[in-house]
Amino acid sequence: MTRTSTAALFALLAWGSLALGQESAPSTADLEARLEAQQRELDEVKAKLSALGGEGEATAAAESAANEDAAKDDDSWTDKVRLGLFYVESADKNFRLDVRVRIQVDGRYVFNRRDFNDDFHVRRARVEFKGHLWERLYYDFGLEFSHTSDADARNAFLELRFCKEFALRAGQFLLPYSDERLNSSKYLNHPERSVHVASIVGQRDIGIMFRGNFADLVRYQLAFIDGEGQNKKVDTDDDPDTAARIELTPFGNWNLAFSVNYIYSPTNRKHTGPADMKTVGNHFSKFITYQRDLNGDGTIDNHSLGRRQRFGGGFRFSQGPFEIKGEANGDYHEEVFNDITGRKDNLLNWSYFVDVTYVLTGETLKQTHDGAKVTPKQPFYDPETKAFGLGAFQISVRYEELFVDPSTVKRGYAAGVDRLRAVATTFHWYMWKNVRFSLNYTYSHFDSQGYMDSRGHRHVDDHGVLGRLAFFF
What we know:
With 473 residues, this protein is of the alpha+beta class. Helices cover 18% and strands 47% of the residues. It has 2 domains: 3-74; 100-472, Porin. The chain has helices at 3-24, 28-73, 179-182, 195-200, 279-282, 406-410; strands spanning 81-83, 87-90, 95-110, 119-133, 137-144, 152-163, 166-174, 204-214, 218-225, 241-248, 256-265, 277-278, 286-289, 302-304, 308-319, 322-338, 344-359, 366-368, 371-373, 381-382, 387-388, 392-403, 415-416, 419-432, 435-446, 451-452, 458-459, 461-472.
């Protein structure tokens, strides 16, 4: 190759390279134009994403609302029922079921009595179901397991509450008579009620009752019942018994109250007149015996040919840890006829008691329709603080007298005494508000002649000791 040809070749390569470099390196204006185009494209993408995001939030909100609606329509119990420790309640509170338990274990001892067996026994073992349907219909059903091999019904009623001033109850319920009887055994000042109240007023009966409350100042109860007692399937007469009670609470609470009670029983010739009576709440030593069969014909000697009327009244005053209350009651039987003597008399038994209680550790007695409740300031053990305490201590003293109609023993209607005086002293230890230990001593004194027990021993007094451990919720 000649020098001229070589030079021409190098010149051609140099021009091509220069042309290629000029084509691959755009100008500044071109670059700015491209950046602006890309920015526009990026803004369009952002706008589309933003629109898509709003639609997503709306979709999520719609899905959430749909899920809530579905939950409302769902039959799942977790959306419709509230569960507590001892209750079940609907979310709208229209339906509720409470479960309550009461267990009382006693130890009993009577000094110098050969006809009474000292023992330990389960005084009460009770399960109760109560609650309401809607706001008007209430129910209460209880079973007692301590007395027989089978469960006995206690409360078993429905109550329709039209308003505060008027309600209708039907079924088996406590008779509207005496604070001492109406107060729950969980909150009694003594393990057992007074002798006369326990003997003249049965626990429960079957019938209907109207009741109401006017401004928390006046409460009334009016019941029409069979008069045969609890769990009796057959009424032995056509005429119902009538029970009425009025309670006045001047301050609008239970701290001061006065009550009047009355039960009328029409003539029922199948009834046998007054019932036997025992000391310590009608559970320990029998001191008067009406129910006798001296002629051995298989029937009780006494017969009630007339009406029976029970009447009485009471009061209660409570302030802080202090309470005093009392009652007077009469039981009048018309035309009691005795087969052995052929005599017929009207018999009147009457009684009164005064009961004083004080919480030694200073807790306030909270008065309710069930009785006075005590909540210890320092429970025996606090699971939250892991601390031990003394609990609460309470002492109660009751004095009662019972006067039996003078004709009762003198004219042969019963064997025993015609007067009883008793002092009951009870010490309570509340370990928790629903666990209580009670120690009771009751001294009973009879008239000067005393009475003869079933083994032929004469007694003028009676000493009974009762210890009780109670658990309830």
